[in-house]
């Protein structure tokens, strides 16, 4: 594969060089300054979440340390700017006096875990179902399509709200997990269950188009097996929409976890997630708005960054884009 440096040198020399689709997409993505900044923010947030214990140790902060002595009678930190200082970069949380930055970092670990696992499961199921329906067509496609339509007809949000308590109780009674572990399993399973039909429709449409291409027809004429056609011919050509869907689904599920935790049907205290922090902040929004603004602003920044990365990837991978 020709490296980017060699391509640039050859371009300056006036030579005509070939570029792979991956190189073209990367060059188009690099020209999108907003996408590059958003990608840097997204990678930084993920790394901070993964290495939260190390970051907190370096900064000398701990999410479990209480600072009750600096709280007034209303539970608000009785310090300038809510306790924001070198010791506590984002201040202290009202009610408990814990370090807000440490709670955001540790809370993001659970939020990202739910979002990443849900996205992975959604993509896996949607990819399999979409390829099966689009490649085999006929009755198989009809049965799969009707089942997908059936799931799309359900109001997913209200189904999750209604089934939360009984399903969590069933998971606990079965001995699979207890407490927040059962709630995490419930969220991942049901968000994936109602999330894959839309992605399968996208994959199906792509496979229906790819199935009629010359390279697939040539592989069939040469006697290639269905397994080889699916894994060697179709799947490598589906990576572009998969990447875009990943970049857009991840922030969506991140926000969904925060919403359900905020509503009290997701992760519960004493665990910490961004949804729980938002729920706690609303009680102090009038007397201590910093807590709400910092927590909500962090969630908005991360979701916006991932969405901008998804838009940039879509533009970079779309040959008809003018960017």
TrEMBL record:
It comes from the Bacteria. One of its GO terms (cellular component) is plasma membrane. It comes from Candidatus Nanopelagicus limnae. Belongs to the binding-protein-dependent transport system permease family. Its main location: membrane. It is a multi-pass membrane protein. It is found in: Cell membrane. This is Peptide/nickel transport system permease protein. It holds the Pfam family OppC_N. Residues 108-310 form the ABC transmembrane type-1 domain. The chain crosses the membrane at residues 34-55, 110-136, 143-164, 184-203, 234-253, 259-278, 290-309. CDD domains: TM_PBP2. Keywords: Cell membrane, Membrane, Transmembrane, Transmembrane helix, Transport. InterPro entries: BP-dependent_transpt_permease, MetI-like, MetI-like_sf, OppC_N. One of its GO terms (biological process) is transmembrane transport.
